[in-house]
Design brief:
155 residues; 2 domains; two-stranded antiparallel sheet; elongated
Length: 155
């Protein structure tokens, strides 16, 4: 438990760096591998912590007297250790599953829409397309001779 308390600033900075990287696309490209590795290490640590607590053996015959007293004190202090570990493993597994589903959904939306048009959903559920890029390209194609003549006069 003390590991969680000691490493809390690391986990907090991991949360904020992930959020900040998601907001700033340049940082997302730079920090995504680092955040992915740190997240994998953190999730692996949590899985190991909870699996160890869940699969701990209660065979006291092989332990020394000092270790038996320590185990008894731990059982008295944390009576629901296995139940809480099982619940936390379930929550962590559901969170990992949700993260994968969300990543698949996000990437399918990001890569399936045309790159030149942006779309949004109105409050009533209707899709609205921002056609500014295409309109600006059509204006440029219609007015290219005028723009070129203006540039020639300026140069």
């Amino acid at each position: 438990m003390y590991v969680l308390i000691v490493n809390f600033p690391c986990y907090l900075s991991l949360f904020f760096s992930t959020y900040y990287a998601a907001v700033r696309i340049r940082l997302l490209v730079v920090l995504a591998p680092c955040v992915a590795i740190l997240s994998a290490v953190a999730v692996s640590h949590f899985f190991q912590l909870f699996f160890t607590a869940l699969t701990a053996e209660d065979d006291e015959s092989k332990l020394s007297k000092k270790h038996r007293e320590k185990l008894k004190l731990e059982k008295d202090t944390f009576p629901l250790k296995r139940a809480i570990s099982g619940c936390m493993l379930g929550v962590l597994s559901m969170y990992c599953t949700y993260t994968v589903k969300h990543a698949i959904w996000t990437s399918s939306n990001a890569y399936s829409d045309p790159g030149i048009m942006l779309s949004a959903t109105k409050k009533d559920g209707e899709r609205f397309f921002f056609d500014d890029f295409r309109e600006s390209y059509s204006w440029i194609s219609q007015n290219t001779p005028e723009v070129c003549q203006t540039w020639k006069r300026l140069i």
